[in-house]
Amino acid sequence: MIAHSFRGEVFGPAQRLHGATFLVDATFKRAELDSDNIVVDIGLATQELNKVLAAFNYRNLDEEPQFAGINTSTEWLAKHIADQLAERISEGALGEGAHGIDAIAVTLHESHVAWAGYERALRTAG
């Protein structure tokens, strides 16, 4: 749950302060399962996703210094979450097996008819 506003005519009435409640999906992708036959330790993934979300849940993003000057669109938030998860994978927070993950996709659902997402690669093949 966040509050924010946007700059730019393209956003119409959303230029005014408004709230949004998101359901967040994070998908971890890899070409081959690890030695335990999993993509990622889902418990660690859930724990780290919750930490990422805690940084802006129940906040007005317009007042958060880390988001100063940024249009915190649904797509941008999905990218931000994916980037934060990628950093945590790199740091080992999702376990050693997570270093084999090829991509992360994050989708933010605003409702049953409106959602957006972002997908990023974590490493190059070869």
Mind explaining what this structure looks like?
Strand 5 (103-109) and strand 6 form a beta hairpin. The chain has 126 residues and is of the alpha+beta class. It has one domain (2-6, 22-121): 2-Layer Sandwich (Tetrahydropterin Synthase, Chain A), CATH 3.30.479.10. The termini are far apart. A 3-stranded mixed sheet has the order 2-1-4, with no helix packed on it. Helix 1 packs across helix 2. The mean pLDDT is 94. Helix content is 25%, strand content 23%. It is built from 2 helices and 6 strands.
Largest sheet: 3 strands, mixed
Total number of helical segments? 2
Helix content: 10-25%
Strand content: 15-25%
CATH architecture: 2-Layer Sandwich
* First-to-last CA distance: 40 Å
CATH class: Alpha Beta
What is the number of E strands? Answer: 6
List key phrases describing it.
single chain; 2 helices; three-stranded antiparallel β-sheet; Tetrahydropterin Synthase, Chain A; 25% helix; three-stranded mixed β-sheet; alpha+beta; 126 residues
